[in-house]
Prior knowledge:
Layout: E1 17-19, H1 25-33, E2 41-49, H2 51-60, H3 69-83, E3 89-92, E4 95-99, E5 102-109, E6 118-121, E7 124-125, H4 131-151, H5 158-167, H6 171-186, H7 192-197, E8 204-208, E9 229-242, E10 248-261, H8 267-282
Parallel strand pairs: 5-8, 8-9
Antiparallel strand pairs: 1-4, 2-10, 3-4, 5-6, 5-7, 9-10
Helix pairs in contact: 3-4, 3-8
Amino acid sequence: MAENTKRKRRLGDRYDGYLVRNLDPVFGMIPYIMRTRLDSQIFFEEQIDISGLRKFIVENRESIPGLSMYHFFIAALVRTIVQRPRINRFISGRKIFSRSYIRISLTVKKDMHTDGEEGNLMPDFEPTDTLREVTEKFNAALAEVRAEEEAAKADGNGTDVLVKLLNFLPGFLKKFVVWTVRSLDSVGLMPKVINKFSPFHSSAYVTNVGSIGLNPVYHHLYEFGTTSVFMAIGKKEAINVPERDGTTTHKHVINMRFVLDERICDGYYFASAIKLFKYYVKNPELLLLPPDYISEDY
Protein backbone atom coordinates (compact mmCIF):
# COMPACT_ATOMS: atom_id res chain seq x y z
CA MET A 1 0.00 0.00 0.00
CA ALA A 2 1.76 3.14 -1.22
CA GLU A 3 0.65 6.34 0.47
CA ASN A 4 0.01 9.25 -1.86
CA THR A 5 -0.17 11.95 0.79
CA LYS A 6 2.46 13.25 3.21
CA ARG A 7 0.14 14.79 5.78
CA LYS A 8 1.00 14.55 9.43
CA ARG A 9 -1.23 12.08 11.20
CA ARG A 10 -3.41 13.35 14.01
CA LEU A 11 -5.57 11.75 16.67
CA GLY A 12 -8.48 10.00 14.95
CA ASP A 13 -6.61 9.25 11.69
CA ARG A 14 -6.08 5.70 10.42
CA TYR A 15 -3.12 4.12 8.63
CA ASP A 16 -5.25 3.94 5.47
CA GLY A 17 -6.97 7.33 5.70
CA TYR A 18 -7.31 10.71 7.33
CA LEU A 19 -10.36 11.75 9.32
CA VAL A 20 -12.31 14.44 7.45
CA ARG A 21 -12.75 17.17 10.06
CA ASN A 22 -14.20 20.11 8.14
CA LEU A 23 -17.54 18.49 7.29
CA ASP A 24 -20.83 20.25 6.94
CA PRO A 25 -22.86 19.35 10.09
CA VAL A 26 -25.48 17.59 7.95
CA PHE A 27 -22.83 15.35 6.37
CA GLY A 28 -21.49 14.57 9.82
CA MET A 29 -24.88 13.12 10.74
CA ILE A 30 -25.53 11.18 7.51
CA PRO A 31 -23.48 8.06 8.46
CA TYR A 32 -25.66 7.74 11.57
CA ILE A 33 -28.89 8.04 9.55
CA MET A 34 -27.79 5.85 6.61
CA ARG A 35 -25.77 3.23 8.45
CA THR A 36 -24.75 0.89 5.61
CA ARG A 37 -23.46 1.18 2.05
CA LEU A 38 -26.46 -0.74 0.74
CA ASP A 39 -28.67 1.90 2.36
CA SER A 40 -26.65 4.69 0.74
CA GLN A 41 -26.13 3.58 -2.86
CA ILE A 42 -26.83 5.93 -5.74
CA PHE A 43 -26.70 4.93 -9.39
CA PHE A 44 -25.38 6.70 -12.47
CA GLU A 45 -25.48 5.53 -16.07
CA GLU A 46 -23.51 7.20 -18.84
CA GLN A 47 -23.15 6.52 -22.55
CA ILE A 48 -19.54 7.22 -23.51
CA ASP A 49 -18.71 8.20 -27.09
CA ILE A 50 -15.52 6.30 -27.96
CA SER A 51 -15.34 7.19 -31.65
CA GLY A 52 -12.20 9.31 -31.18
CA LEU A 53 -10.80 7.11 -28.42
CA ARG A 54 -10.63 4.05 -30.70
CA LYS A 55 -8.34 5.92 -33.09
CA PHE A 56 -6.22 7.18 -30.18
CA ILE A 57 -5.72 3.63 -28.85
CA VAL A 58 -4.57 2.35 -32.26
CA GLU A 59 -2.16 5.28 -32.70
CA ASN A 60 -0.52 4.74 -29.29
CA ARG A 61 -0.25 0.95 -29.13
CA GLU A 62 3.28 1.02 -30.50
CA SER A 63 4.58 3.52 -27.92
CA ILE A 64 2.56 1.95 -25.06
CA PRO A 65 2.81 -1.85 -25.49
CA GLY A 66 -0.36 -3.76 -24.65
CA LEU A 67 -2.53 -0.65 -24.50
CA SER A 68 -6.26 -1.34 -24.64
CA MET A 69 -9.43 0.60 -24.01
CA TYR A 70 -9.71 -1.13 -20.64
CA HIS A 71 -6.36 0.38 -19.60
CA PHE A 72 -7.51 3.79 -20.72
CA PHE A 73 -10.68 3.69 -18.63
CA ILE A 74 -8.66 2.72 -15.56
CA ALA A 75 -6.23 5.57 -16.24
CA ALA A 76 -9.12 8.00 -16.68
CA LEU A 77 -10.60 6.81 -13.39
CA VAL A 78 -7.26 7.25 -11.60
CA ARG A 79 -6.87 10.78 -12.99
CA THR A 80 -10.43 11.61 -11.99
CA ILE A 81 -9.69 10.48 -8.43
CA VAL A 82 -6.59 12.69 -8.45
CA GLN A 83 -8.60 15.73 -9.54
CA ARG A 84 -11.76 14.93 -7.53
CA PRO A 85 -10.27 13.35 -4.37
CA ARG A 86 -13.50 13.31 -2.37
CA ILE A 87 -14.64 10.27 -4.35
CA ASN A 88 -11.69 8.49 -2.70
CA ARG A 89 -13.29 8.86 0.73
CA PHE A 90 -14.80 6.03 2.74
CA ILE A 91 -17.02 5.48 5.76
CA SER A 92 -15.83 3.47 8.75
CA GLY A 93 -17.14 3.49 12.30
CA ARG A 94 -19.73 6.15 11.33
CA LYS A 95 -16.91 8.53 10.38
CA ILE A 96 -15.74 9.84 7.01
CA PHE A 97 -12.11 9.35 6.01
CA SER A 98 -10.00 10.52 3.09
CA ARG A 99 -8.10 7.51 1.72
CA SER A 100 -4.32 7.89 1.77
CA TYR A 101 -3.70 5.83 -1.38
CA ILE A 102 -5.17 5.12 -4.83
CA ARG A 103 -5.92 1.47 -5.55
CA ILE A 104 -8.21 0.00 -8.20
CA SER A 105 -9.53 -3.55 -7.72
CA LEU A 106 -10.43 -5.70 -10.70
CA THR A 107 -11.60 -9.29 -10.98
CA VAL A 108 -10.30 -11.28 -13.94
CA LYS A 109 -10.94 -14.79 -15.18
CA LYS A 110 -7.83 -16.95 -15.10
CA ASP A 111 -9.43 -19.25 -17.67
CA MET A 112 -12.19 -18.15 -20.03
CA HIS A 113 -14.69 -20.94 -19.42
CA THR A 114 -17.60 -21.43 -17.04
CA ASP A 115 -15.56 -23.32 -14.45
CA GLY A 116 -12.52 -21.06 -14.66
CA GLU A 117 -11.24 -19.57 -11.41
CA GLU A 118 -11.20 -15.83 -10.82
CA GLY A 119 -8.25 -13.77 -9.65
CA ASN A 120 -8.02 -10.29 -8.17
CA LEU A 121 -5.81 -7.49 -9.45
CA MET A 122 -5.18 -4.64 -7.02
CA PRO A 123 -2.51 -2.33 -8.44
CA ASP A 124 -1.65 0.82 -6.49
CA PHE A 125 -1.20 4.04 -8.42
CA GLU A 126 0.54 7.35 -7.84
CA PRO A 127 -1.23 10.69 -8.45
CA THR A 128 1.35 11.50 -11.15
CA ASP A 129 0.83 8.27 -13.12
CA THR A 130 0.27 8.66 -16.84
CA LEU A 131 -1.53 6.31 -19.21
CA ARG A 132 1.75 4.49 -19.86
CA GLU A 133 2.42 3.90 -16.15
CA VAL A 134 -1.14 2.78 -15.46
CA THR A 135 -0.94 0.30 -18.36
CA GLU A 136 2.41 -1.04 -17.16
CA LYS A 137 1.21 -1.50 -13.58
CA PHE A 138 -1.99 -3.20 -14.70
CA ASN A 139 -0.15 -5.54 -17.06
CA ALA A 140 2.45 -6.35 -14.40
CA ALA A 141 -0.30 -7.27 -11.92
CA LEU A 142 -2.04 -9.41 -14.55
CA ALA A 143 1.21 -11.15 -15.48
CA GLU A 144 1.82 -11.93 -11.81
CA VAL A 145 -1.58 -13.60 -11.47
CA ARG A 146 -1.05 -15.66 -14.62
CA ALA A 147 2.49 -16.63 -13.63
CA GLU A 148 1.30 -17.85 -10.25
CA GLU A 149 -1.41 -19.85 -11.96
CA GLU A 150 1.13 -21.50 -14.24
CA ALA A 151 3.62 -22.17 -11.43
CA ALA A 152 1.11 -23.59 -8.96
CA LYS A 153 -2.29 -24.30 -10.41
CA ALA A 154 -4.13 -23.79 -7.14
CA ASP A 155 -1.96 -21.28 -5.27
CA GLY A 156 -3.14 -18.05 -6.88
CA ASN A 157 -2.17 -14.59 -5.64
CA GLY A 158 -2.14 -13.28 -2.07
CA THR A 159 -5.89 -12.81 -1.97
CA ASP A 160 -6.54 -16.33 -3.27
CA VAL A 161 -4.18 -17.86 -0.71
CA LEU A 162 -5.81 -15.96 2.15
CA VAL A 163 -9.31 -17.02 1.08
CA LYS A 164 -8.29 -20.66 0.64
CA LEU A 165 -6.74 -20.73 4.11
CA LEU A 166 -9.93 -19.31 5.64
CA ASN A 167 -11.99 -21.95 3.82
CA PHE A 168 -10.27 -24.67 5.83
CA LEU A 169 -11.93 -23.30 8.97
CA PRO A 170 -15.31 -24.58 10.17
CA GLY A 171 -18.28 -22.26 9.63
CA PHE A 172 -18.49 -20.84 13.15
CA LEU A 173 -14.78 -19.91 13.08
CA LYS A 174 -15.16 -18.24 9.67
CA LYS A 175 -17.99 -16.16 11.09
CA PHE A 176 -15.89 -15.23 14.11
CA VAL A 177 -12.86 -14.31 11.99
CA VAL A 178 -14.90 -12.10 9.66
CA TRP A 179 -16.66 -10.44 12.63
CA THR A 180 -13.29 -9.79 14.28
CA VAL A 181 -11.78 -8.30 11.12
CA ARG A 182 -14.83 -6.07 10.53
CA SER A 183 -14.77 -4.90 14.15
CA LEU A 184 -11.07 -4.07 13.98
CA ASP A 185 -11.55 -2.33 10.62
CA SER A 186 -14.32 -0.13 12.03
CA VAL A 187 -11.85 1.36 14.54
CA GLY A 188 -8.85 1.42 12.18
CA LEU A 189 -6.99 -1.48 13.80
CA MET A 190 -7.33 -4.14 11.11
CA PRO A 191 -3.91 -5.67 10.32
CA LYS A 192 -2.22 -4.02 7.35
CA VAL A 193 -1.57 -7.38 5.69
CA ILE A 194 -5.33 -7.88 5.28
CA ASN A 195 -5.67 -4.42 3.75
CA LYS A 196 -2.87 -5.28 1.33
CA PHE A 197 -4.61 -8.40 0.05
CA SER A 198 -8.22 -7.22 0.30
CA PRO A 199 -9.89 -6.02 -2.93
CA PHE A 200 -12.64 -4.57 -0.71
CA HIS A 201 -10.33 -1.85 0.63
CA SER A 202 -9.79 0.00 -2.64
CA SER A 203 -10.58 3.39 -4.07
CA ALA A 204 -12.84 1.76 -6.65
CA TYR A 205 -13.86 -1.66 -7.91
CA VAL A 206 -14.06 -2.11 -11.68
CA THR A 207 -15.67 -4.88 -13.71
CA ASN A 208 -15.48 -5.18 -17.48
CA VAL A 209 -18.52 -7.23 -18.45
CA GLY A 210 -18.22 -5.87 -21.97
CA SER A 211 -15.34 -8.32 -22.48
CA ILE A 212 -17.89 -11.15 -22.42
CA GLY A 213 -20.39 -9.28 -24.60
CA LEU A 214 -22.73 -7.98 -21.88
CA ASN A 215 -24.21 -4.60 -21.12
CA PRO A 216 -23.06 -3.04 -17.82
CA VAL A 217 -24.68 -4.03 -14.54
CA TYR A 218 -25.49 -1.98 -11.46
CA HIS A 219 -23.17 -3.82 -9.10
CA HIS A 220 -23.81 -3.36 -5.39
CA LEU A 221 -21.18 -1.96 -3.06
CA TYR A 222 -19.69 -4.38 -0.55
CA GLU A 223 -20.52 -4.01 3.12
CA PHE A 224 -17.18 -5.55 4.00
CA GLY A 225 -14.26 -3.19 3.50
CA THR A 226 -14.14 0.49 2.56
CA THR A 227 -14.73 0.70 -1.21
CA SER A 228 -17.18 3.50 -2.05
CA VAL A 229 -17.20 3.35 -5.88
CA PHE A 230 -18.09 0.55 -8.31
CA MET A 231 -17.70 1.04 -12.07
CA ALA A 232 -19.04 -1.43 -14.64
CA ILE A 233 -17.93 -1.24 -18.28
CA GLY A 234 -20.27 -2.60 -20.94
CA LYS A 235 -19.78 -3.84 -24.49
CA LYS A 236 -18.99 -1.63 -27.48
CA GLU A 237 -21.97 -0.65 -29.63
CA ALA A 238 -22.52 1.21 -32.89
CA ILE A 239 -25.45 3.65 -32.91
CA ASN A 240 -26.96 6.25 -35.23
CA VAL A 241 -27.50 9.64 -33.58
CA PRO A 242 -30.09 11.98 -35.19
CA GLU A 243 -28.90 15.53 -35.83
CA ARG A 244 -30.97 18.74 -35.93
CA ASP A 245 -30.69 18.99 -39.71
CA GLY A 246 -32.37 15.60 -40.12
CA THR A 247 -29.20 13.66 -40.86
CA THR A 248 -27.73 10.92 -38.68
CA THR A 249 -24.22 10.48 -37.33
CA HIS A 250 -22.70 7.04 -36.86
CA LYS A 251 -20.96 6.67 -33.50
CA HIS A 252 -19.32 3.99 -31.41
CA VAL A 253 -20.26 4.06 -27.74
CA ILE A 254 -19.83 2.15 -24.49
CA ASN A 255 -22.40 2.24 -21.72
CA MET A 256 -21.02 2.51 -18.21
CA ARG A 257 -22.73 2.30 -14.85
CA PHE A 258 -21.52 3.67 -11.54
CA VAL A 259 -22.69 2.78 -8.04
CA LEU A 260 -21.54 5.23 -5.38
CA ASP A 261 -21.82 5.68 -1.63
CA GLU A 262 -23.63 9.01 -1.40
CA ARG A 263 -22.43 9.61 2.17
CA ILE A 264 -18.87 10.49 1.14
CA CYS A 265 -19.74 13.68 -0.77
CA ASP A 266 -22.70 15.47 -2.34
CA GLY A 267 -24.39 14.68 -5.66
CA TYR A 268 -23.03 17.77 -7.39
CA TYR A 269 -19.48 16.64 -6.64
CA PHE A 270 -20.23 13.15 -7.97
CA ALA A 271 -21.70 14.66 -11.14
CA SER A 272 -18.63 16.86 -11.66
CA ALA A 273 -16.40 13.79 -11.27
CA ILE A 274 -18.30 11.83 -13.92
CA LYS A 275 -18.22 14.84 -16.26
CA LEU A 276 -14.47 15.04 -15.75
CA PHE A 277 -14.15 11.32 -16.51
CA LYS A 278 -16.02 11.85 -19.80
CA TYR A 279 -13.81 14.86 -20.55
CA TYR A 280 -10.72 12.65 -20.40
CA VAL A 281 -12.40 10.17 -22.76
CA LYS A 282 -12.96 13.00 -25.25
CA ASN A 283 -9.42 14.31 -24.75
CA PRO A 284 -7.34 11.14 -24.21
CA GLU A 285 -4.04 12.85 -25.01
CA LEU A 286 -4.24 14.55 -21.60
CA LEU A 287 -3.47 11.22 -19.93
CA LEU A 288 -0.17 10.91 -21.77
CA LEU A 289 1.25 13.55 -19.42
CA PRO A 290 1.19 13.86 -15.61
CA PRO A 291 -1.57 16.09 -14.21
CA ASP A 292 -0.95 19.85 -14.15
CA TYR A 293 -2.00 19.90 -10.51
CA ILE A 294 -2.92 17.42 -7.79
CA SER A 295 -5.97 18.17 -5.67
CA GLU A 296 -5.77 17.41 -1.96
CA ASP A 297 -8.80 16.41 0.10
CA TYR A 298 -8.33 18.67 3.10
